[in-house]
Amino acid sequence: MTGADKRLRVLALHGGLVLVLFALQFLLPDYDHTNFTSIMVLATYAMGYNILVGYTGLLSLGHAMFFAAGLYGAGMGVYYFALHPVLAFVIGSSAGLILAALIGLIALRTTGVAFMIVTMMFAQAAFLVTLYFNDVTHGDEGLTLTQAARGFDLLGWHVDLTNPALRYNLALSLFTGALVLCLALVRSPIGRVLIAIRENEERTRMLGYDARHYKLLALSLSGLLSGAAGAAYVLFFGYVGSSFAAIQYSIYPLLWVLLGGVGTVVGPIIGTLLMFYLIEISRDHMSSYMIVVGIMLVLLVLWFPKGIAGTIRARWWGWIP
Amino acid sequence: MTFLSTQALTRSFGGIHAVAGIDLDLRQGEIRAIIGPNGAGKTTFVSMISGRVEPSSGAILFEGEDITALRPWDRVLRGIVYTFQITSVFRNLSCFDNVALSVQRSLSKGRAIWYRPDPAEVTAAVDSALHRVGLLTRSAELAGELSYGHQRLLEVAMGLALQPKLLILDEPTQGLSEQEIADFCSLVKEIAAGATILLIEHKMDVVMELAHRITVMNNGTLLAEGSPDEIMANLDVQRAYLGT
C-alpha cells in the first residue's frame, strides 16, 4: 500500500466516523441523543488517556484528577465568578494541562507499577481535597450551574449550552478536535518517538532521545484533553461533584480504551460507546452495576487485550493508526 | 588530540570489579577490536563509553572533551552510537520506522521537540541507510518478522542513520551464517571509511580480517594491546583466551 493510499483510508475512516456521528443526531431518540453527547465528551477524555497509555506505554490509574481539574476549573469559575463559559472552558482545559505537567515532574520519575501507584495516590489526594474543602466544592452534593450561567451572546446570537442540539454539535466539535489532534500526533515525528518509548524505552534513549521530555509532553497533552473533556462536561450538563474525582473515573477511561483498542485513534469512542450502554443496561437491572465494570476489566485483560480496533488492526486493517 | 580516551575507567557491582581501571586510546578512523573471554567486562566497558552504564570512577574523553557526566542521549548527538548485543530493534514497527527514528533524531539535532524534519529528506536518508545494509526491499516489513541476520543488519542501519563518528558494535556477527558474516565484514570496512569502529567480537577470523588493532581484556583489566599479528603471538593472550 502506498503512502497516499494509506492516507486516503485513514481520512475515510475517521472522516466517516465524524459524519456518522453528525448524522446520528437527526435519527436518535431524545434519550440517546443526550447519551451520545456525553459519550462524545467522555470519548475525548478516553482519547486523552490513550495518548499516555496507548501510545507512550504509561499506565496511569489517576486520570480522574485531570478530568476533575477540568470540571472544577470550569465549574467553579462559572459558579463563583460568573465567568464567560468560553473562558471557563479555557481555564478548565488549562487546569488539566498544568496539573498533568506538575504531577508529571514527580510521577514520571517512576515507571510501570510504581507509576500506577503514584498517579493513583495523587488522584486519591485530589479526590480528598474536593471533599475536604466542602465549603467551596459542596463535596458529593456538588455545584449546579444555572441555565443562565451556561449561556452567552455571540455576534448577536444567544448561545444556550442547555440546548440539546447545540450541545450535541459542540460535543461533536470537541470530539473531532481531539480526533484530529490525536491523528496528527501519532503520525508526527513526536508520535513515532512516543511509540518507540512504549516499545523499548532504553533503545529509544540510545537513539539519542531524552525520553523524559517526550513522556512529560505526552502526559501534559493527555491532561489537556482530559481537562477539556471535564470542562465541556460541566458546561454541557451543569453539574460537578466529588464523584467525578473518585477512583472509578480513573478506571473508566482505562476500561473504555481497553475495550475499544489501546493505541488506536478510533478505539476510545468505540469503547466508550459500548461501555456506556453496557453500564446503562446493567443499571436498569441491578444496583451493583460496578460489578459489570470489574468483570469487563478482568475479561478484557485476560482474553481481549488488543480491544476491538486493535484486533481489527492485527487481523485485517494493518493501516489503522 | 586523541579521538577517544578512557582513563582508569572502572565499574564495580558490589564488590566485583567488572571493569577495573582501563586506559584505552582510540585513533580516529581505526577499527579496534576488543576481545576476551565471557565475563571479561567488554560489554560493561563499551556501555560506559556509550553512557548506558555509569562508571564508578575514571574519565572518558571524546574529541578532547570530558564526556564522563554526559547522559547517553547527549553522547549519541555527539556521534557515539551503540548497537546492541542482544538485537533490540522495535519489533512492532516497520524497518522504515525503525530507521526513521534515527534519521529524524539526526535531522533535528539542536531543534525543539516539535521540530518536523522534511519528510522527503527523512525518506531519502532512511532509504539510503537501508540500502547500505541491503534491506531496502524490506522497508515496509515489520522488524520482528525479519530473520535474525536481517534484524542485526537493521540494527546497524539504525546506527548508521545516526551518522556516527564512533560506532560501537557489540558482537554483531553472533548468530549469523557464514555468508552473512562475509557480507557483514565488507559492510564494516565500508562504514570504517567514514567512522571509527569499536568492535566486540568473539570470532577470531572476523577480528583478524577487520581490526587494525586489538585490545584484549580479561577479568576487567587490559591484558594486552597491539596489532593482530602481535596479539596472535602473545603468549598471555593465548593462555587467557585462545586456549592453546
Q: Could you characterize the architecture of this molecule?
A:
The complex is a heterodimer of chains A (321) and B (244). Chain A is mainly α. Chain A has 14 helices and four strands. Chain A has a single domain, classed as ABC transporter involved in vitamin B12 uptake, BtuC (Orthogonal Bundle), CATH 1.10.3470. Chain A has helices at residues 3-24, 30-53, 64-81, 85-107, 112-132, 134-137, 164-186, 189-199, 201-205, 211-237, 248-260, 267-285, 290-303, 307-315, and strands at 143-144, 151-154, 157-160, 239-240. Chain A is globular and about 55 Å long. The two termini of chain A are 14 Å apart. Chain B has 244 residues and is of the alpha/beta class. Chain B is 38% helix and 25% strand. Chain B has a six-stranded mixed beta sheet, with helices on both faces. Chain B has a four-stranded antiparallel beta sheet with strand order 2-1-4-5, with helices on one face. In chain B, helix 3 (95-107) crosses helix 4 (119-133) and helix 3 (95-107) runs parallel beside helix 5 (148-160). Chain B starts with a strand and ends with a helix. Chain A binds chain B through residues 188-190, 192-193, 195-196, 199-200, 202-211, 213-214, 217, and chain B through 50, 52, 71-73, 76-77, 82, 84, 88-93, 97, 100-102, 104-106, 108, 113-117, 158, 162.
